[in-house]
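Morning F.,

Quick status update on the modeling queue. The single chain you submitted on Monday has been processed. Sequence for confirmation:
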Amino acid sequence: MRIHALSTGTVRLKHSFLYARSGPRRQLDLLLPGTWSWPVPIHCWVVEHGERLILVDTGETAEVNDIPFARFTVRRDDELPSALEGVRLKLSDVDTVVLTHMHGDHMDGAVHWNGPVLVHEEELAFARSTGARVISKLLRQPIPTGVDWSPYVLDGGPFGAFPRSRPLTDDGRIVLVGTEGHSPGHVSVICVDDDGRHVMLAGDTSDSLEQLRSLRPDAIAQKPEVYVETLRRILEHGREHPTVYLPSHDPESVARLASSATL
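Structure tokens below.
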């Protein structure tokens, strides 16, 4: 098994998103003036396993619009096809595409893909709800059109500390697990590498390893308590299994992948 990090541009995040207050100011502060982070990566991942080539998330595109708490820098040659070429792969080599969740910087690159895109059915239902559609319109972050969103259910039972899962490969070495919180149907992808480590392609379960260890919810989680419970499950899983934790916007994720540094 080989796992490659792909970078599809960068994003600067408002500190009120990364270090959210509790209470009524938690989301209000996202709309108010504030300080910004340094640019952090917009990662997606490609997994080579046997004859399979699985893409986890599709990254961002150059058409992205800034939003009140995120400022994007994405060039044409940052987009998914070029990112794959950077690791000597082509989009035509990919056989499966799966999303951790349906936020723009994880799904917009799906416009480059002609096949089905696997999405947890709870995430897809939320993204198509009236409230989510209104917010996406206000933020100018629409769901890409012309994409074959293909829903699935987490019907595989527990996997480690996670009560819901679904195997993505016949040998059970690549598994989808429910990690709701950042979005209602968020999932992560756990790859059991050749040495038995669990490499967790964690989407936006947190923005950094520091946030995971601090058990700090972000500012957009609908239910912060669910977000924190997922963080606890990840840490519990890491105690049971050697786990390499790779959130999509952590600048240290690539180094942890290269060194196989575990929780």
